[in-house]
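Worked Example 4.2. Consider the chain below.
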Amino acid sequence: MEHDNKAIKFQEPEGLKLSVQIPPEVTDEYLQFLQQMGIHYVYTWVNDQQSSYEFLAKLKERTEKYGIHIYNVGNMNLGKSESILLGMDDRDVHIERFAEFLRTLGSLGIHTTTVTWEPNNTLSTTPDGKVVSERLGGHWANVYTRGGAKARIVDMEVMKKAPHTHGRTYSKKEIWDNFTYFAEKLLPEAERTGVRIALHPNDPPVDSCLGIATLIQCCEDYEKAFEIADSDYLGMEFCVGCWLEGGKEFGDLMENIRRFVSRDKVFIVHFRNVNTTLPCFTETFVDDGYQDMYLVMKEFIRYGYNGTLTMDHTPLMVPTAGNIGETAYAVGYLKALHQAASDEIIK
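Applying the procedure from the previous section yields the following structure tokens:
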């Protein structure tokens, strides 16, 4: 891709930073709760109305009163736009809206946003044979894990029997052609505004889901995406959960951390554990899956990862705990891992 690189250089604070997702209409009490836990970075997903400069400037002002920095913001209707991902006739309209969103983020000093090539959103299954997602309807928490906590399950036998959602099959070539078009059109604007685009892997990381071929199902797909994009402003949301779901077929987790962190291609880390690899997995509490997450934390610190790490998906606790209990447990565990790993690696 040939274009002038007029990027605004983003100077991040050094080192790994723990982050928590907040709703765009977060309460002051929740921000104070995060402040009490020592969290200084957050991210959020917004809708079209909440993507304006006025809304995000107000949100940024509110979080900063609690010493909290908005590190990345995604727009679900842009970052998972059917029109862009499937190459529909109106994709240029959506790409221009995405470019305007980048300009808004850049003007606010928010230098990272998110894309995931999932036109049906993140898919889950149910024990009675349904496929559910935010876009398709239904709830993701359909099985039970430790202590009766509700958790997400993906069973590929269920997924394979589900009908196509968009009327036909979309091939790998089509999906990669659509990504190439997106990169050529949007990355020059990302470079001009200084806003990086973090590409999340497909979840589940399989060849296709519901008739639509996946874009990122293994580490080598990332290499292909980076070659096509040829820009420092396209990197990855390194989703540990997707690596664990895919197992060896996705890639060597520890080697891939070294490979991509050393090239500054990891913009965001999603930290999540699962009970086993595909074809059927259940998400677990971070300390209860098949992966020793302390080893994972050590690798990100060992190779100098400079970005945010957040707990991505966690089982639902009892109503008394609510969202605050789930967040507190995850954050406390991650802070302990971070401190122990830092003490061991950084002598």
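Confidence is low (pLDDT under 50) at residues 1-11. The two ends are 42 Å apart (CA to CA). Compare this with Example 4.1 before moving on.
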